[in-house]
Specification:
The protein has 362 residues and is α/β, with parallel strands linked by helices. The protein folds into three domains: 4-149, Rossmann fold, CATH 3.40.50; 157-229, Arc Repressor Mutant, subunit A (Orthogonal Bundle); 249-360. 56% of the residues lie in helices and 10% in strands. The chain contains 18 helices and ten strands. It has helices at residues 26-39, 53-62, 87-96, 111-119, 132-143, 151-162, 165-173, 175-185, 190-196, 201-215, 220-229, 249-255, 260-273, 288-291, 293-309, 313-327, 331-338, 341-360; strands at 4-5, 9-10, 17-22, 44-50, 67-71, 73-74, 83-84, 101-106, 124-127, 148-149. The strands form three sheets. It has a six-stranded parallel β-sheet. Strands 1-2 form a two-stranded antiparallel sheet. A two-stranded antiparallel ribbon has the order 6-7. Helix 6 (151-162) crosses helix 11, helix 8 packs across helix 10 (201-215) and helix 16 (313-327) runs antiparallel to helix 18 (341-360). The longest helix has 20 residues, at 341-360. The protein is globular, with a radius of gyration of 21 Å.
Length: 362
């Protein structure tokens, strides 16, 4: 049976689906080979782990895997800040390895970026919080020539294909429909919106139904996700209780491939990064957002990805919003979001502790 040698290389075997993993989050990269091996019953074999793009190019000059599983955000060289890959980079990679299928992973990517990467040769795109079994299914599907995009992004890409993003935004934001949408994105309920405008509740429901029809979605949270992908808002509603728990224990276990020890390792490692002296605790100091926005954004992006892998929806939402605000240099918004981070992390810790107590019977 093939085995990981050290933390990078494996013996190549012809009867398995051979994949190269490019992932700069060492925590995720370290556990992914075993997760995929278990989820695929040994049919998928990680033959190399690459921690930056330079290493990835060197690796692909020496070997041709069946599939490349690649994080969208990676540093070019070790020690550099991670940046999103673009279509020209991915196109060069595909030309170098035309027989290797490419599946992309990210905790935070918009529809326009993903569409450009798919057009450049990628065959699939997944969020990082999906279960290992789904990653394996997509790897095999894309290897056979199929294409898969996580539904929340595919819906936004379809809208881009139908018409320009500006046209969609114009439809959504004009008149009363726009007033309803703005309040909805701020976390207001239909009853609260009706009282604030003021208009009838049935009229609010009608406008929300029109918004859903334009976006092709069927729930309020999907309205939010679609608007973020289309660039209509960068505010994930960190104060909204709807569908945003601090910790989703069942999801955390699925992401960890049903392995409690791995779930606990992911949780503890992520929360440790927010402790005093931890790499992500820097985000608690909102003054750094203006003095070093590039580094702050890189940290916010990493925090969102780790929170996604740890099944911490409220923290993930907050960090995603912070990432986007920093990208657009909306520093007032970024600072307001950053001030919520300490309390949000504390609430996540409390939720995890409560869940651990329930499991142990205390």
């Amino acid at each position: 049976m093939a085995r990981i040698q050290g933390n990078r290389d494996t013996v190549l075997t012809s009867e398995k689906t051979k994949i190269v993993v490019a992932e700069d989050h060492t925590l995720f990269a370290g556990v992914l080979p075993e997760l995929l091996h278990r989820a695929s019953s040994g049919e998928i074999e990680v033959v190399r782990l690459c921690l930056d793009r330079s290493e990835l190019f060197r690796t692909l000059r020496k070997t041709t895997p069946d599939v490349l599983l690649c994080d969208v955000w990676m540093p070019h060289n070790s020690g550099e800040r991670p940046r999103p890959c673009d279509a020209s980079w991915l196109g060069a990679l595909k030309r170098q390895n035309p027989n290797t299928a490419i599946v992309l992973l990210s905790g935070n990517a918009n529809a326009a970026l993903v569409k450009s990467l798919l057009d450049a040769g990628a065959g699939g795109f997944l969020d990082k919080n999906v279960a290992p079994e789904q990653i394996c299914q997509v790897i095999e599907w894309v290897r056979k020539g199929g294409r898969y995009v996580v539904p929340r992004l595919q819906a936004a890409i379809d809208l881009l294909d139908i018409g320009s993003g500006e046209s969609i935004r114009t439809q959504l934001l004009k008149g009363r429909k726009g007033d309803v949408l703005r309040l909805l994105l701020e976390g207001w309920s239909p009853t609260e919106i009706a009282a604030a405008l003021p208009i009838g509740k049935k009229y609010v429901d009608k406008k929300i139904a029109e918004i859903k029809s334009i976006l092709g979605v069927n729930t309020h949270i999907r309205i939010l996700h679609a608007c973020i992908e289309l660039g209509i808002t960068n505010h994930l509603v960190a104060d909204s209780p709807d569908n945003l728990p601090h910790y989703d224990a069942a999801r955390a276990l699925r992401i960890a491939g049903g392995i409690p020890a791995l779930r606990d390792q992911t949780l503890n490692s992520t929360l440790e990064l927010f402790s005093d002296g931890g790499e992500l605790a820097v985000l608690f100091d909102v003054s750094c957002y203006r003095s070093d926005p590039t580094q702050s954004r890189a940290l916010a992006h990493s925090a969102a990805g780790l929170a996604q892998q740890g099944a911490m929806p409220r923290l993930e939402s907050l960090c995603r919003a912070l990432d986007t605000a920093l990208e657009q240099e909306e520093f007032v918004t970024a600072e307001a979001l950053g001030r919520k981070l300490p309390a949000t992390v504390a609430s996540v810790r409390a939720a995890v502790a409560t869940e651990s107590g329930v499991r142990s019977g205390t």
